[in-house]
Amino acid sequence: MISAEHGRRISTFAMSNFTLGVPLVGILASVLLLGNRLSMLFAAGLCLVFSGMVLAAVAAARKR
Questions:
Q1: pLDDT by residue (tens digit) across 30-52?
Q2: CA atoms within 13 A on the CB side of 58
Q3: pTM exceeding the 0.70 threshold for the entire prediction
Q4: Long-range contacts: 44-48, Cβ < 8 Å, 24+?
């Protein structure tokens, strides 16, 4: 419900980036709070997802 309401107020691009960030926050929280370990391959994948989010945000900022 909250996601749908805020999704109407922000751009589609911003909403898609926020949606991509949800698993990152969950995984980082499980590592920090629960002591789970990440494999190097999984950590590399997380870095690629985060890098994609940053590159997309930079490209959108330059477009404006």
A1: 999 999 998 999 889 989 988 88
A2: 6
A3: no
A4: none
